[in-house]
Amino acid sequence: MYKRFKVKIKPTQEQVDLIEKTFGCTRFIWNQMLNERQTVYESLGNNRESLYAHKYLTEKDYKQQYLFLSEISSYALQSTRKDLQEAYKKAFDRLKKGKKTGFPKFKSKKGKQAFRMPNVHNEIRFLDNTTLKLPKLKGVRLTYLPKNFKGEIQSVTVKKEHGKYYVSILCKIDDAEVKKERSGDGITGVDFGLKNFITTSTGDVIYGLKNVLYDVDKRIVKMNRALSRKKKGSKRREKCRRKLSSLYEYKTNRLSHFQWHLANHLCNENQVVVIEDLNVRGMQKLRSLSRFVSTQVWSTFVNKLENKSVEYDTDVYKIDRFYPSSKMCSKCGAIKEDLSLSDRQYECECGASLDRDINAAINIRNYYLVNDKKSEDHIDYRRGEEVRPRELSFDNFQGIFCEALNPALAG
């Protein structure tokens, strides 16, 4: 099992200069190797034998041509070459399957700033509780060390986000040490909504951060307008840019904190979490819904839910995308074709009257019980005949630490 820890670092000025130089060198190597591959393909594309037999230059060859590449860690250059090869491999795999794909592109200074270094011969290790030794950088000070940090370090990624520096540490942990004991063994259906972030079949209603993010977006729009009026190269423009960057950082951290806590709650309380397989891209094409769908950010929450489910050994089950969970009555199974988005209360001819989102969540749960063979092994004693809505809050924002858990992280 692999677990990733993201921690803020406090590098010295010398370390900052070397980190920035490493960003530039890895970006330079990526662009040079990508340009070489494009040039070779244009000249040898019609001759497949010569194309497959061609040997591309490695980072060692480029270090002989450009001596400044020797000033940074060779592990960062090797990882850049492997990342480019993996990007091409994934692009061709999607192309073979007949899917739309995009090939690697040239990197810019304004894009993502990061480089990765694998842990070879234990060169990456902790000197003390708050000092991490990295190749070329020596001892880098961390703001803190997470209490649940454990495992063997596999690689470290150094990132720059909103003018601050972070390290993302990938660790390998024994499965027995990762697993946590759940407090409940129920089966819950989760309905994603526009009014509320999610509604569960047990009656839990989580409103989400729609209002909070809306206020932050208004401040971001106002700050962008102020930035456009500042003279380029002036101190006031740089000051305004930093304020705008801090707003984007606050928005990202606030949303990530909320989603991690909600995912932890669902996986801790349930043995099976049944969710919808939504076509988010299709919903964003509708002018009336695009803004609301983009602010809910369901896709990132689903990723966090799947990662956290590994920790609690919880099953995340996705139902059929075209299943009419909202239009179907959860008691008699009748489908109400004329149901509109404005109808917030589901009224059926059989006498059922309940909240629209709770009705959909119950149908999502029932879909799993009917269609999945594993459902015979799960028994949920919590839900009765009637479900009363209960609002939950996950808005105690203090987080500066992000974690991810996924067996595929090592890839």
List the helices and strands and how they pair.
Blueprint: E1 2-8, H1 13-44, H2 48-53, H3 59-65, H4 74-96, E2 113-118, E3 125-128, E4 131-134, E5 138-141, E6 152-161, E7 164-172, H5 175-178, E8 186-192, E9 198-200, E10 204-206, H6 210-229, H7 235-269, E11 270-275, H8 280-284, H9 290-296, H10 298-312, E12 315-318, E13 345-347, E14 353-355, H11 356-371, E15 390-392, E16 402-405
Parallel strand pairs: 8-11, 10-15, 11-12
Antiparallel strand pairs: 1-7, 1-16, 2-6, 3-4, 4-5, 6-7, 8-9, 9-10, 13-14
Helix pairs in contact: 1-4, 6-7, 7-10
Low-confidence stretches: 378-386, 398-411
What's the domain count?
2
Percent helix range: 40-55%
Number of discrete helical segments: 11
Q: Please outline the major beta sheet.
A: 6 strands, mixed
Based on secondary structure, the structural category is alpha+beta
Mean pLDDT over all positions: 85
Distance between the termini: 12 Å
Q: Give the strand line-up of the largest sheet.
A: 12-11-8-9-10-15
Strand content: 15-25%
Number of E strands: 16
The outline comes out as globular
Order of helices and strands: EHHHHEEEEEEHEEEHHEHHHEEEHEE
In angstroms, what is the radius of gyration?
25 Å
